[in-house]
């Protein structure tokens, strides 16, 4: 499993990119995307998914 970013809701603030312990979030083209192969759902690193925690727009970083 991995998380994904709902591009239509993302304000491209960039906050999530720096909080991801797996370096799974990158700015590609004109949107932020989560590489599902790299996303660990923050397991073993944090109790909560960091992208979802820091994202200012509710429901934008969600389980894929
Ligand atoms: S759930 Fe965790 S590992 Fe996955 S993209 Fe979000 S911050 Fe990165
Ligand atoms: S924290 Fe949320 S709004 Fe900001 S770039 Fe990431 S997904 Fe987009």
From TrEMBL:
It comes from the Bacteria. Pfam families: Fer4_7. Its cofactor is [4Fe-4S] cluster. PROSITE patterns: 4FE4S_FER_1, 4FE4S_FER_2. InterPro entries: 4Fe4S_Fe-S-bd, 4Fe4S_Fe_S_CS. Keywords: 4Fe-4S, Electron transport, Iron, Iron-sulfur, Metal-binding, Transport. This is Ferredoxin. The lineage of its organism: Bacteria, Pseudomonadati, Pseudomonadota, Alphaproteobacteria, Hyphomicrobiales. The gene is yfhL.
């Amino acid at each position: 499993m991995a998380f994904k970013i709902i591009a239509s809701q993302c304000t491209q603030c960039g906050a999530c990119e720096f909080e991801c312990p797996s370096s799974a979030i990158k700015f590609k083209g004109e949107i932020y995307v989560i590489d599902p192969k790299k996303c660990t759902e923050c397991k073993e690193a944090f109790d909560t998914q960091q992208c979802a925690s820091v994202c200012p727009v509710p429901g934008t970083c969600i389980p894929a």
